[in-house]
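Q: Can someone sanity-check these two? First one:
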Amino acid sequence: MSAFTDRKPLGRPHPDWGLLLQRGAIILGLLALDVGIGLLAAVSSKYPISLIVLALAAALSGLVLIYRSGRFEYGLLTVPLSAGLLDFASLPTGTQSRIVISLVIALALIGAWILQMAVQDRRLQLKPSPINAPLLAFVVISVVAYVWSSVLRDPQVIVPPNYTLVQLGALLVNISLPLLALLVANKVHEVSWLRWLTWIVIGLGALALVSFIFNLPSTALISNGARGVFPTWVGALVAALALFNEKISGWVRLLLVAMLGGLLYYYFIMIPDWFSGWLPLGVVVSVVLFMRSKKLSIVSFLILAGFLWFHPDVISQNVLGRAQNKGDFERLSLWAMNLQLVAQHPLLGMGPAGYSVYNMTYHPSDARSTHNNYFDVLAQTGVVGMAAFLALFGAFLWIGVKNCRALARQRNFEEAFAVATLAGCIGALVAMMLGDWVLPFAYNQTITGFDNAAFTWMLLGAAVSLRRILAARRPVPAALEAPAP
């Protein structure tokens, strides 16, 4: 049997507008509720506690409805919506970081899912998938690393008063993001939900692009959610839909192409010194172009090479010069310093956010984060956690390749989504070299980085869902699938 075979109802061949409106109403209702709770929490000193309790009771009622109906998809779609639209509403933690609403929703959904398996299904069982073993291993290793680092911390290390809260917050984010991907992979069974997720991300991308270019007040809504790998995912989805989905109308394709042009203009021309923005974006667009047409990819590369040949100052001044002024090249010394600390704690690292206090103790004049997810994971969970993390992304890549092969030349939404998620995974791997954009570091992005990181994990989880949907339609011989854990 295939590791993905799971007989579930497939998506409707024709849109049911009544059902779509119902889903949209539920999603918007939950989002409005989240906004209200966030605003109440932000100004709790001005409102009686009874009102806040009432709001929390209403939120709990919404979660109970999701739990009873089993339709976690409604709640899942509020995660990207809140991540992209609720930057102004967050909950205090007693530290400099705050808890964003998207994290609250994600934790509630994960908790409801575990409760459903324990109480309603009476068994804790995941749907078979190649991501299960490395993902759960990384979660367990992260928890063990937290305990390990607390017990075996160097006695000379100076620990700030609120360090325990910071570590717990970092641990919470580091395990909730992979669990969010696992939740999506287990609870999304229909292509229609992948369409919803896709157009929500593209819609948020359009809002961010217009807001940033024209400096609109709406920037306050989406500035945090649109950081990191977010523009990379928007570019991957937009390019893939425009080039692979022949079912869309001409005017929609034209809008997608125009939006892609706007993305390239903003991130390559207006802010060329932000490597984390334009380099992963350029990678995913190149991957999509190459998968659509090798000739088109070569032509695009030659045009770009010719432009840079006649305008060398674009790289030397606008890119490298600005990056040097910002101190980006100093990261090499930060990575070397990080490796020296890891060498003393190789097995399980220094725990969530742990290397920060080591830096503040032993290198107080240069105590900075690595701005690199690979070094962050290595320092926080050691070589054991790093192995599980790399194995997890290897599984995501493998699933992306299988999806693209299964849907080759279909020229529909599903093929476009498969290409976009594979390209986006590659882009995320590149982005992790340039910043803590996939697992936000507690002393850099803080917990609020969950907003932009959630897009990566949800879309990767959605790629796993697509693989299962395809396997349910036409089972793949077991020899072609990786063994289920």
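And here is the second, same format, sequence then tokens:
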Amino acid sequence: MPPWWDAWHEFVRSAPARLTQSILPWSFSAFQFTNEIQGDPEIEYKILTRVAGYGSQLGTLMDFLQVLAERIRPDIRSQQSDVDRYKVLKFYHLLEKIDRVKGQATE
């Protein structure tokens, strides 16, 4: 055996046979995001854990904006400024990308 074998064998034997760790998504995201918020971190934590996470909140807003956008959907060729046309197209492109990812997640 090589000279380091006994030390390595002793090190491996001292490692736990089974290692578990709970990973709580809310603890990471709540810490990560509420640290940057100027409001009350305790209230943010309660909203994240009792009402809806950031992804769910954003998804609801995107769904609502899509309903509004469909009702007032401007003709892209209308007299809008190039900046406004870009914003509208960017919104619809974002919705398409989100729908594509959601479709892949359910497959």
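A (reply): Looked at the second one. The chain is about 70% helix and 0% strand. The chain has a mean pLDDT of 76.
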